[in-house]
Amino acid sequence: MNTPKTIAQLIDTPRIHDVEPLEELAKNSVELRGVLKEKLALEPGKYTYFDFSDSVFTDLVANNISALRSAVIRSTFKNAQLTGLQLPEGNFKDIIFENCRFTLANFRSSTFERCIFRSCDLTEADFGMSRLSSVAFETCIVDGADFSNCVIKRLEFSETPLHSVNGITGLKGATISNQNLIEIAQLLAQTLDLTIK
Questions:
Q1: Disulfide: which of 34, 67, 71, 167 matches 148 by Cβ 3.0-4.6 Å?
Q2: pLDDT tens, position by position, 134-176
Q3: 3-state class percentages of the chain: helix first, strand second, coil last, to nearest 5
Q4: Residues whose CB is less than 8 angstroms from the CB of residue 155 and which lie 6 or more positions away in sequence, other chains included
Q5: What would the pLDDT profile of 36-54 be if each residue is shown by its tens digit?
Q6: Domain range spanning residue 99?
Q7: DSSP H or E stretch at residue 111
């Protein structure tokens, strides 16, 4: 019998040396493809779109940036500061976010496929109405994060407390630990208007 692959094994890694590098940091859009970037800082503000692919970013600072319908594909982000990031209706595929800060980020109505959030702070991040397929949250902070009305196809939480998430019913079908189940019992009781005697 074949053992199912882990989410980490499913992720297609960046093809940095197989694509033609492209770096465009225009006033209203950002396109980065096939690059290794350290300590990149983007100006806060509204952009037309982001297009990141086949790249690795270390120490990226992109606080209070907004762009609608952006694409991030086959990329890795380490130690990124993304507080207040607004990327609703985005498309995220084959991404590893490691030790990143997404406080108050807006990913509403986005699509995430084969993504790992590892040791990330997602306090009050908004995933409402997003599609999450083969996504893992490992040792993350998701206090106040919103998962309302999500569509899930393989979502895993590992060492990530869920006691204060919003939209708990949006996690239908997720894989959680026994500890998570104990943590969310009160949330489920409140959401379902259960009386506990």
A1: 167
A2: 999 999 999 999 999 999 999 999 999 999 999 998 999 999 9
A3: 10, 40, 50
A4: 132, 135, 136, 171, 173, 174, 175
A5: 999 999 989 998 888 999 9
A6: 26-191
A7: strand 111-118
Mention every residue, 6+ apart, whose C-beta is less than 8 A from residue 118.
96, 97, 98, 99, 136, 138, 139, 140
Write the pLDDT tens digit of every residue in 76-121.
999 999 999 999 999 999 999 999 999 999 999 999 999 999 999 9
CA-CA distance, 133 to 180, in Å (whole number)? 20
The answer to whether position 9 is within a domain reads no
Looking at the domain assignment, is residue 72 inside a domain? yes
Instruction: Give the three-state DSSP class for 174.
Output: coil
If you count them, how many residues does the chain have?
197
User: Does 17 reside within a domain?
Assistant: no
Position 138 in a domain = yes
Number of structural domains, the chain? 1
CA–CA gap between residue 73 and residue 62 (Å, rounded): 17
CA distance 179 to 184: 9
pLDDT confidence band for 20 (50 / 70 / 90): low
Q: Which of 17, 20, 73 is nearest to 50 (CA)?
A: 73
Token pair recorded at residue 170: 């949006």
> Measured between alpha carbons, how far is 84 from 106 in angstroms, rounded to an integer?
7
CATH number of the domain at 110, please: 2.160.20.80
